[in-house]
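Notebook entry, structure prediction.
Reason for the run: the old model in the group folder had no record of what sequence produced it. Starting over properly, with the input documented here first.
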Amino acid sequence: MYLTGQAVHTLRSKGIEISEAEEVAVLTAILLHDIGHGPFSHALEHSLIEDTPHEVMSVLIMEELNNAMNGRLTEAIAIFRGEYPRRFFHDLVTGQMDMDRMDYLRRDSFFTGVIEGSVGSDRIIRMLNVADDRLVVDEKGIYSVEKFLIARRMMYWQVYNHRTVVSAEKLLTSLLVRARQVTAEGVKLFAPPALEWFLAPRHNMAALEERKALVGHFTALDESDILSATKVWMSCGDRVLEDLCRRFVNRDLLGIELQRTPFSGEKVAETGRRAKTLLGLKDDEVIFYVNTGDVYNQTYAPGTPEVRILLKNGSTRDITAVSDLFDKEALSEKVTKYYLCYPKEIVN
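New structure, fully documented this time:
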């Protein structure tokens, strides 16, 4: 929110007219843009509510707040959804170089000690401008932009898609899926009220009352609900759920391998057979311990506008046309790594 305020100040200093109402709206949009994140951020994004990414939840919550505030968030919601006429406001909230990315890269770099993620956000913000109603960067800021894009790429591989993060997220997702499965079989599991609501069968998002209930329970849910439930489920009576929760609480994460090509069906099947034998699993229980998938990284965030550079002659060019480091193919290339998770003890 602070960085967005600085960006607004910069744009005004360059002659871009921004009303007080627009400033409040864009600050509100950036403040609330991630309000749809559930416990453990992205980890449970598609586990608590299927087919409902956090951006959709953010809009649902904003709309509920807007109703309660007699429409005072209408402009903020329009900016967030890209429906406000002045499109550069949306770029500040959701873009290749939005204020959220400026914030979390620097913050996460500091707290993880991964210095490659440190970016000169103050310098980039001072170079922001508007051309053709889109957010652009003055030509003299191009090197700071290049460093920013490299830092984002490095942080995804070294932090956000790190093997330990992937393993922990898969374990957390698996135990929640198992808890839902056990609940569906008629077993009453302990859960705080907010979490209990999400263990029930899938909900109908089309119904207005269901959406209201969803927002109410979702905003009441936090990490403490998940953690307290997993500690109790360590002795819930279901052997698989007990073991998954024990591993999560004790940080006994699944082993994980990463490689640039998909794991063969034979390797996955053999790993599954070894886990089944060692842990005494049933066929339909192996998936909770042995699973494969992929993680990916792109220098350019998919689905967002390109980074435009405002040249001294007043024209704008894509950064790939003026950068010494990047071309279009390099920026948009999707680098994928494939993972295989399994109990560590099967390799001992």
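Summary: The chain has a mean pLDDT of 90.
The old model has been moved to the deprecated folder.
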